[in-house]
Amino acid sequence: xxxxxxxxxxxxxxxxxxKHKRSISDAxxxxxxxxxxxxxxxxxxxxxxxxxxxxxxxxxGRLNSSLLAxxxxxxxxxxAKDLSLVDxxxxxxxxxxxxxxxxxxxPRILVNLPEFIEEFSSRRGQFKDLASSxxxxxxxxxxxxxxxxxxxxxxxxxxxxxxxKDAIVAKLFAKHKKLINTTEYVRKTRQVxxxxxxxxxxxxxxxxxxxxxxxxxxxxxxxxxxSTDKLERIVVDFSHIDxxxxxxxxxxETFEPLVQLLTRTDLKRNYIKEDEGVDxxxx
Length: 283
Prior knowledge:
The chain is an alpha/beta fold. The protein contains ten helices and nine strands. It has helices spanning about 10-25, 35-45, 65-80, 85-90, 115-120, 150-160, 180-185, 215-225, 250-260, 265-270; strands spanning about 50, 55, 140-145, 170, 195, 200-205, 205-210, 235, 280. Helix 3 (about 65-80) crosses helix 9 (about 250-260).
């Protein structure tokens, strides 16, 4: 009959250590964090439906507010890899401020922009008159943000239906117009008669809707020429892509000032107001 000698302490310790290592290596991988799953889902969605003929990424219009806010954080990490968690959190757009527009079925092309803004301009069923303007100077009720000056000009023309003698749709960007000229233009929209309106008369212009690039809008707000006091909505030209398949979130020179614009302290205070706060609309 075989006689088994008891294991010494060192051998027993080695055996237990080996067993522990095997149990770790054989264990199934841990589930990934829900945030990582959302990032993969979002990335898959946004690359799903590029419409080159119309110059839009149709998939972006299907993102709900949570996925859209998560996509913003993804892009922030892409352009600023060294941000701390605290700094990253400061650059988040609040999910509750983003209006859900995924149920809007029409293509997000320029000709449909006026209808899109009308559709989502109401709150609690109350219609908002877009062909109007606040009394305060340089205080539009709507700001449209787009990636380039030429696109801003095209958007301005597409929104002319909302322009009246009492409210203009103002292009707040032009390559030939320096910042100081735009600043004076905005400041004068409640101070002096700018252009004739009707035979033998002049009229004081008021901005109802302002259209511009992120950097120019930030500069106008910083200078005090443009105000968010009466602002009701910001419309981001989100789905549009250029000939290189780039949208406003795909270029550092447009994305970073866009985040700077949307996360301004004065806007963050207004995002939390339920009835009179600022809505974020992504077209």
